[in-house]
Amino acid sequence: MSEMSREDLLEVVRKVWIERDPVPDGLVSRMQAAAAMAGSDLDVELMLLVERSHELAGARGDTTTSYTLRFVHGDTDLLLRIAVDGDESRVDGWIVPPEAMTVRALAADGEPRGTAVVSDKGRFELTGLPTGLMQLRLEPHDPERPAFATPTFEI
Amino acid sequence: MTSIHTRVESGMGMNATGDADDIRRRETARPGEVWGQATAAFNRWVAGDPLGLDELVRVMTPVLWHVVRAYRLDQDVAEDVIQTTWLTMVRKSSSILEPTAVGGWLTTTARREAWRVAGAAQRAVPVEDEELAVHVPNARSAESDAVEKDESSRLWTAVDGLPERCRRLLRIVAFEDRPDYASLATDLDMPIGSIGPTRGRCLAKLRVALMQAMPSGPEGDER
Questions:
Q1: pLDDT in tens, B103-155
Q2: The complex's ipTM?
Q3: Are B159 and A32 a contacting pair at CB < 8 A?
Q4: Which is it for the CA torsion B29, B111, A111, A48, positive or negative?
Q5: A-B interface: how many C-beta pairs under 8 angstroms?
Q6: Which of A81, A126, B72, B106 is least crowded, fewest Cβ atoms below 10 Å from its Cβ?
Q7: Strand, helix or coil at B42?
């Protein structure tokens, strides 16, 4: 007689508890409502693009192109230096004044392509990003501060 | 495995049944699958689609329910713990750096909160003592009902006969995907090094109990 595997046994445990102590009716929809309400306070505001400057490609004889973007939102300034090398790119960011935040790079399809945490000097970097349309979402670690995002820009 | 939900018929009106059916199907999925769905939903939400949050809550709430109830909390207290978990996630999504870890982040947060509440209230009521409504869907044939009840009550006898620590540990382990041992150890008041061996012993006890409860072996598994 072969023994039941660990997965079989855990499957029995799941089955038993799902039957004996089921999720109460309506719990999922109550939680969806609570989460949505908390989430709606956090509608993401867009930063404003205030400056854009190009650096010429090939100045150092390589294939890298780079340029800078500057966004503002309230008292926060975000400076980005974007470097493209072939079909890969990297973003070096600087937040003024420095603030603890998580920065997510979102591609046009909404897939996250990278996450970084802002240093205490306000710096962060995202490497290995694809080229194409990109948006950065900034989530302050202070829960009182809602997230905000850059408009979509093209790398 | 599919026998529970495939036979649910509309005894309670389409919506309620569809919902319950849906929940049950998601619940019985292996944790790994659920975790993948949670990651996809989280990514949608972070990208600005509010339906992603809806989906994340739908996928993970049943898992949180079972994990939290392992702490012997009343239904309404368990529900509060789960709600706190969701509100924390919404407000502190910035602390979830790796989207593939969102499932583990949620269960760990829920366990910590359950542990805190259970300790603070000093009134954790053993789930076993509560009147647990046996969830038997309406409108099924008497025959399949009897067979299934028999089968499920044998499974229950085996699980219920385990020592309490085993019941709790296995319930958590069964619904989580690779739970973090350090926080489990704190929550269950066990040394971290003993979680793995205890889990092994609990699984062995369950294996024996199942063989005793079902000399012919579990469904489709007799040899």
A1: 999 999 999 999 888 886 554 444 443 333 333 333 445 555 566 667 788 88
A2: 0.72
A3: no
A4: positive
A5: 173
A6: A81
A7: helix
